[in-house]
Design brief:
With 91 residues, the chain is an all-alpha fold. It has one domain.
Length: 91
């Protein structure tokens, strides 16, 4: 969300990387939900089982590591900007 709001000040590739991560996180959350998305290529993650819970935790850890790297890239991209150069939030 914040990468998109800062889009004029950030490379579009970085914003897209952030969006793709959020998309994958949401898809994994839906796989762990009671919805059956197998028809759309999203097999369930059965968090009620030991194996499913372990898979969910593994995904979460991987996402956290990827998000940390993206936050670092965001900070690097924004560091040279002065506060007056960042886009203001529009209503």
């Amino acid at each position: 969300k914040w990468a998109y709001k800062l889009l004029p000040a950030l490379p579009s590739e970085l914003v897209m990387d952030c969006f793709e991560l959020s998309w994958r996180i949401r898809a994994m959350d839906m796989q762990a939900s009671p919805y059956d998305l197998a028809e759309w290529g999203y097999p369930p993650i059965r968090i009620e089982t030991t194996e499913g819970k372990a898979a969910y935790v593994e995904h979460q850890r991987a996402f956290a590591a990827e998000a940390a790297a993206l936050r670092g890239r965001l900070a690097q991209a924004l560091a040279p900007l002065k506060p007056s150069e960042t886009p203001s939030e529009t209503p």
